[in-house]
Design brief:
heterooctamer; C: 77 residues; alpha+beta; Alpha-Beta Plaits; two-stranded antiparallel sheet; 29% strand; D: 183 residues; alpha/beta; Pyruvate-ferredoxin Oxidoreductase, domain 3; six-stranded mixed sheet; 40% helix; binds thiamine diphosphate; binds iron/sulfur cluster; binds magnesium ion
């Protein structure tokens, strides 16, 4: 008897994605689906798709889904989760979506401690619109809106979402992982599992950043893209857990007594 | 229920609760901040939740999300805040979800001032966002009607799965008048929304989106929306007339607060034997063109009176093609007195 | 005995699995599938250890892994 | 019946509140009412005013340019609104703080030393209640009892304030009646 | 200068440079991203600066600031992005600063699709934000005109210290046609703007605001704006007519891309002896009502053809009061072929 | 001969402000004006007023001024400064303006390293609109939209702007000071001087946060308000310099070679 | 003169470019031209096409439903656009990749083995230039020289590519001429 | 000799200067100014050390400080 030890998770539909060959969006999708399966959450999950390459994510996941406006997935997720706290809600957002136009929404969702999970795909570029500079684009990296390479003098340095969000006081789970390195995939899945688990326990906001690739707009083949993610992105975007809900609160909080 | 004296803004909050609304996502702005403030106090009594959003952009997308979850939900704001909501309103229309927006209009453009205005008429009735869509616009002229229309707004939003907007002004929001509320609707007893995002348990996943890459599918959406708008135009037009007779010296067109000022002026002139009728659209979209046109046909002259530079004139013209439509209005937050309006009527009639 | 199955028509030919396999037993086809891609194939199934690295890495869930009997994981990272 | 009153004074003098009590009491007695505050950008230290319309019929315009009656609690208010009162109307002047009058002979003026009277009763802050009492005493828009009832409702649980305010209302009412004005 | 073959989006970028614009603040969105991409490459050659904003909200407020500094400045976007700019556009109008916006309209509502549409007509001509204001709207129908109108737009913006919008569609942006540019304007030679924020050296400080707490002052602003709009209506109306004759079977109203499709259909039917004239407004606001009405008076029937559910119809009705205005349009990004349009004309003429 | 050692700075107009008695907005205004005077910058300065109690700031400063949309002052300042780099540009923003609706704009202005100065007045409340909850409102502090006190479970913990912004890679000057304690005023002015000096040297973005008061909406007299700022705000909003342009860049940046 | 051509094929086959070169060369020779790409959401691996209109007069509709000519570089393109070509029109088929034809007898079909010809010259990638050359050879919309000039302009500084493309254009032109078609 | 001047009509009566003065020589008036506020006054000008703490603290720039001759700063923080 052959026992299948690896196959398509139930939470992922049996369809081919529109993603380019070798794009890590696909791996990230599958890992989320596996975690939803393993935690038995599929039937009470609602996903919120971004505007970005993952705009059609709702065609790939086998659960309820909403399509947000560009950058506003965390606001939309807030609306859904607050109204139906028993649902498991996640957003899936690119770096343009989350770290540029949606900065206020992600920051305040994290700060309010909204109890949903954010999957943040950092591929250092605007994939869907054809390769414009993202807030996470690396110094000197070329993109269609910085054809001579990102100039840190005028465009600043890349935004490090995990580093910044983990400075928020409100307890949360913040981790950075990658699916671009096979060996790191189990750890990535582990972070996702924790994120959804914390949500299921109604504990906190959770965000998992994926250091990802965009072979098409980087102009590299998929393997080269994975290597570039390791060599050029990861030193600046180190993997790891940046915050857990058990981290101590900062000093100076007067939580016991009310103030007038 | 007995009548209670309430501010328009508070009555809007209470009426929403009566309509079964238990969630409010919003951002403070004068002159509507009493709505969130009222609800922040009142909601805990009915297990409702007020969430202060970080901005109007966020608030509007929160209520978009809330509506997707099948929940009755409200946000209120004032002019600049409403502009910031316009992208989300377009998304709500495209996704076909029911949401209720309240705009307590202030004088603009830009930061402008905080006094009453009707200068967002065009935006609400035609340009509430990008793309081919319309929202139902209801314009109360007193606190009681504000409360009634809020309750109606939720029903209409659900009926058409379309955004509905209440368009008031600072006076509607700040004024206190007696108000009697309808029966409390228990949110649990509202009809199910089978399209809502509630978790795909024992059914195929529901997907709510406004993205349709296939132009044929998007055109079909546009046609479906158009059919809804035609339906609204057929059955949802609401208006009030006052002192209409067959041989009027003047027909006055006014909505919201201005209609009340117009009435006082009409009453005064009636005492002098001058017959003036008033037409007040309650739905600004769909605009009651036929009824408005009929009133026009009975009057020698027409005038639109507004707290703007004259945004409703075109609708009156469309209702009464070929007729000259006069205008009187004040801007910047100035509300004309009945005397001003009366004098304007006289001048026009005598000219 | 472990065995993997590459869904020829699902594969987009990205070659990530090729590099992920510690046993280096995957290769690309010389002919195109219906989508127009060269697809991955197992060259030497006997050396497969069922580690599923290939499947883990595949962005298109084009690889299924099965085992029959005891499974040995022989490589280390 | 149709009466409009503009109640105007400094920000902290409690004009909004007495306007509201007047509206509530009148509503309670079956009248149609409308209360409209001056609202505007916070210009601290400015004047605050509200307009109350009480009528047997639905209130048309909430915006009143020429009110039949005016309650002026400070001088700027009298100067601003005094000239607007309709001919034949009533002007109630808080003579504790205002040492002038409208200078008109087509309106009835009644002087009430509201602050002094309130102080006599126990607290200068109740001046607004004194003048409201006086207004009711003269205009008979609604009964004193209704006003007291709604005042009690407003300050529920704060017995001290209720007692003070009741006294102030009653004293004002007396003064109003004593003025023997017919409007 | 020789003619060069260029995409509409690129031509817009180049024309802005020719007009003396050296600053672009914008955010990517299909189908206009070639504008920022072109400028990001081209600007260094002319000491210009492209700044990628974090959002359309930011971009629009950046150009608002840039305009306050007295600089010629541009942003371009497409429908959802334009909605997000509506608050800032209202501020620009209220502050009376010159700015040029380009909207390469895509099909909506909501996220919609990225194919061509004319569904933002209402928003641009009437509801471009809260409050009583209007913006000048110019609608090119070819790449050359897009370039010309961009240069004009900067001049008009300066002339009226008012926002000007170019309303195109995906075809205008994506199509390549030969284009010849006007003379390069040296930004240094542009007239001084004494009201601009340049540092109060040797003069009283300049203050640029749209806040006017005194309603009389705000009303005065509203009246000043209204006077500008009346002036625009008097002198800035632009239009094109095609094949107008005294006894037309049909008058066609179309703007932008649709006018070209209409022309082909008209030419085809002319060969069959059917006389159809075309009226194309180039300024959508101010709308050339009189000229449009004159054309109507020469035609038996009227039709508006649009890439929307019919947003220009009301303007045609206002231009030709009492006349029936027919409509043909496609939505969702579908552009009808000249054959479709021709058939529609025929059907209407024969009915 | 009497030498005046303290009087109204030239950069401040001879008018009375609309601020409530004892509101620290007034002190902050004066300090900015003093620094502009002392650095000789008045005649090339452009201020950007927020929407908030300081909305009329342009009536008080004696320099060119623009009025921004709510939260967008940093975007507006970006537009001004990029077009006229020789100007000295500053924004003056409240906590609602900067830390709520304007989160994306302040974050990205800092991240791009826009060379203007931000004065951030944190009074833990929405002053102008009548006392609603701000992102910086303290736990359990009452406000009109949290009449029972800020509940950290649903509204999250207060936002600490300096702590978060100082995590951005792009060099900048970030400091927190106060004008609510007389002894701290010289230090506050010092921070302002540095901020404008760095700008004048074209070095970096600078932000100075003022722990401020709102006696009116806090329902306290001015002195009590100052005491409350010390006792209840400052432990959580500690004063100090959070970032200076000389701080080292994080590891992982590949700035020498361009990448493809 | 008025010609429309739809050029269609796989995403990477360079159809957009040859359409552009055709338009540029024709413009250079004084014609009015219009080039319109199919643009749409990135659906990777799909077909890409552009329409080029060349005319003596200003181009009216840029949207062409029934083109006079078609260049089909792959089978899906032929299947999609073949039926739309006007009666009497021309269909240029890349026979290297397409083993069918339109099945119509009211259009002229010319088969060009573009990929093979390009491979012979040196690189399969120049197939687009082969077919463009052939198109010019048949239709004479503009001269080969103009096309070469604009091709050189396009690849300025990349001499190798220029040489390859020139050869491919010339070879195609030859084949086009040789087809002896009159349209 | 240092001397301060409180601009009576500029003062909004917030009392912050009262608490800032290390010499405790400022008091509030018993009469209102035109704006309706009690205003700050120097009670004992002779003890003023010209430290300007009052002026530094005044949100309304209602206090001017001047010195004549040498200035001693006698207090310490
Ligand atoms: C309001 C608005 N602005 C801009 C766009 C255009 N747009 C679509 S996706 C996108 C960026 C996508 O980049 P990212 O979020 O990094 O996702 P990726 O495609 O890289 O996965 C942009 C700017 C839009 N749809 N709406
Ligand atoms: C788009 C928009 N939303 C809301 C408002 C209303 N509003 C004006 S000021 C303000 C908050 C001010 O608070 P803060 O920034 O903390 O400044 P403060 O008044 O406390 O100094 C708000 C919400 C507005 N004018 N515009
Ligand atoms: S464009 Fe980039 S991010 Fe988008 S699917 Fe292709 S490779 Fe992935
Ligand atoms: S399961 Fe492991 S050994 Fe077998 S093919 Fe896949 S990667 Fe190679
Ligand atoms: S990783 Fe998947 S898609 Fe890529 S080559 Fe291997 S099987 Fe094919
Ligand atoms: S409301 Fe508060 S912040 Fe505003 S001026 Fe008054 S005290 Fe200052
Ligand atoms: S200068 Fe110093 S000592 Fe003199 S009054 Fe002011 S604070 Fe007191
Ligand atoms: S600090 Fe200034 S405003 Fe306050 S009491 Fe003293 S002098 Fe007056
Ligand atoms: Mg990305
Ligand atoms: Mg504040």
């Amino acid at each position: 008897m052959i026992e299948t030890i690896f196959s398509r998770p139930e939470s992922l539909r049996e369809v081919s994605t529109h993603y380019c060959p070798g794009c890590t969006h696909g791996i990230t999708h599958r890992l989320i689906a596996e975690v939803l399966d393993e935690l038995g959450l599929r039937e009470r999950t609602v996903g919120v798709a971004p505007v970005g390459c993952a705009v059609l994510a709702y065609n790939y996941f086998n659960c309820d889904f909403a399509e947000a406006a560009h950058g506003r997935a965390p606001a939309m997720a807030t609306g859904i989760k607050r109204c139906r706290p028993n649902l498991i809600v996640f957003t899936y957002q690119g770096d343009g979506d989350l770290a540029s136009i949606g900065t206020a929404e992600i920051f305040h969702a994290a700060n309010r401690g909204e109890k949903f999970t954010v999957i943040f795909v950092n591929n250092a570029i605007y994939g869907m619109t054809g390769g414009q500079m993202a807030p996470t684009t690396m110094p000197n990296q070329k993109a269609t809106t910085c054809p001579f390479g990102r100039d840190v003098e005028t465009a600043g340095y890349p935004v490090r979402v995990c580093e910044v969000l983990s400075k928020i006081t409100t307890p949360s789970y913040i981790a950075r992982v990658t699916a671009a390195v096979p060996k790191e995939i189990p750890r990535a899945k582990d972070a996702l599992r924790k994120a959804f688990q914390y949500q299921a326990e109604n504990r906190c906001f959770s965000l998992v950043e994926f250091v990802s690739t965009c072979p098409t707009n980087w102009g590299m083949n998929p393997l080269k893209a994975c290597e570039w993610a390791v060599s050029d992105m990861m030193p600046y975007y180190p993997l790891g857990e940046f915050k857990t809900p058990d981290d101590p609160l900062p000093a100076g909080l007067n939580l016991i007594e009310g103030d007038e | 229920m007995a009548r209670v004296l309430m501010k328009g803004n508070e009555a809007i909050g209470e009426a929403a609760i009566r309509a079964g609304c238990r969630f409010f996502f919003g951002y403070p702005i004068t002159p509507q901040s009493e709505v969130p403030e009222y609800l922040a106090k009142r909601f805990p009594e009915v297990d409702g939740h007020f969430i202060q959003a970080e901005s109007e952009v966020a608030a509007s997308n929160m209520i978009y999300g809330a509506a997707c979850s099948g929940t009755r939900v409200l946000t209120t704001s004032s002019s600049p805040g409403i502009s910031l909501m316009s992208e989300a309103i377009s998304y709500c229309a495209g996704t076909e979800v029911p949401v209720v927006f309240v705009n307590i209009v202030r004088a603009g453009p830009g930061l402008g001032g905080i006094l009453p205005s009707q200068g967002d008429y065009w935006q609400a009735t035609r340009g509430m966002g990008h793309g081919d869509f319309r929202i139902l616009v209801l314009a109360p002229n007193c606190v009681q009607e504000a409360a009634d229309l809020i309750m109606l707004a939720f029903d209409l939003a659900d009926k058409y799965t379309n955004p509905v907007m209440i368009l008031g002004d600072g006076i509607i929001g700040q004024m206190m008048e007696p108000v009697e509320f309808g029966e409390m609707v228990d949110p649990e007893t509202l009809p199910e929304k089978p399209w809502a995002l509630t978790g795909a348990k024992g059914r195929e996943p529901n997907i709510l989106t406004s993205l349709f890459l296939d132009p044929n599918v998007l055109e079909a959406l546009n046609q479906r929306l158009l059919a809804k708008y035609r339906q609204m135009e057929a059955v949802e037009k609401r208006w009030e007339t006052y002192n209409i007779s067959d041989n009027m010296d003047l027909a006055v067109y006014a909505w919201g607060t201005m209609s009340r000022i117009g009435k006082t002026a009409i009453d005064e002139l009636k005492e002098r034997g001058i017959e003036i009728g008033l037409f007040r659209p309650i739905t600004l979209y769909p605009y009651p063109y036929e009824a408005a046109g009929e009133v026009a046909s009975k009057a020698k002259k027409l005038i639109s009176i507004e707290l703007s530079t004259g945004q409703m004139i075109d609708d009156v013209r469309l209702a009464a093609p070929g007729r000259e439509v006069n205008f009187f209005g004040r801007q910047g937050g100035i509300v004309p007195t009945p005397e001003d309006v009366r004098d304007e009527f006289l001048k026009l009639i005598e000219s | 005995m472990p065995m993997i199955k590459v869904h020829k028509e699902t594969c987009k030919g990205c070659e990530l699995c090729i590099h992920a396999c510690p046993q280096e037993i995957l290769v690309m086809s010389k002919v195109l599938n219906k989508k127009g891609y060269f697809y991955a194939m197992v060259e030497d199934p006997g050396r497969c250890i069922g580690c599923a690295m290939c499947a883990l890495t595949c962005p298109d869930v084009a690889i299924e892994v099965g085992v029959q009997g005891t499974r040995y994981v022989l490589y280390e990272y | 019946m149709l009466t409009e009153v503009v109640m105007a004074g400094f920000g902290g003098q409690g004009l909004m509140l007495i306007g509201k009590l007047l509206a509530e009491a009148s509503m309670d007695e079956g009248k149609e009412v409308c209360w409209l505050p001056s609202y505007g950008p916070e210009m601290r230290g400015g004047t605050a005013n509200c307009t109350v319309v009480v009528s047997d019929n639905p209130v048309a315009s909430p915006v009143i340019n020429k009110p039949r009656t005016l309650v002026a609690m400070n001088r700027p208010s009298l100067e601003k609104f005094g000239p607007k009162v309709r001919s034949g109307g009533l002007v109630l002047i808080n003579s504790s703080l205002i040492d002038v009058n409208t200078g008109r002979d087509d309106v009835t003026e009644v002087l009430i030393a509201a602050n002094e009277e309130a102080q006599k009763i126990g607290n200068d802050k109740a001046a607004n209640m004194v003048i409201l009492g006086a207004y009711i005493g003269i205009m008979e828009v609604c009964t004193l009892d209704s006003v007291i009832k709604w005042m009690e409702h407003q300050f529920e649980g704060k017995q001290k304030i209720i007692d003070l305010n009741r006294k102030a209302l009653e004293r004002g009412f007396e003064l109003g009646k004593a003025a023997e004005v017919k409007v």
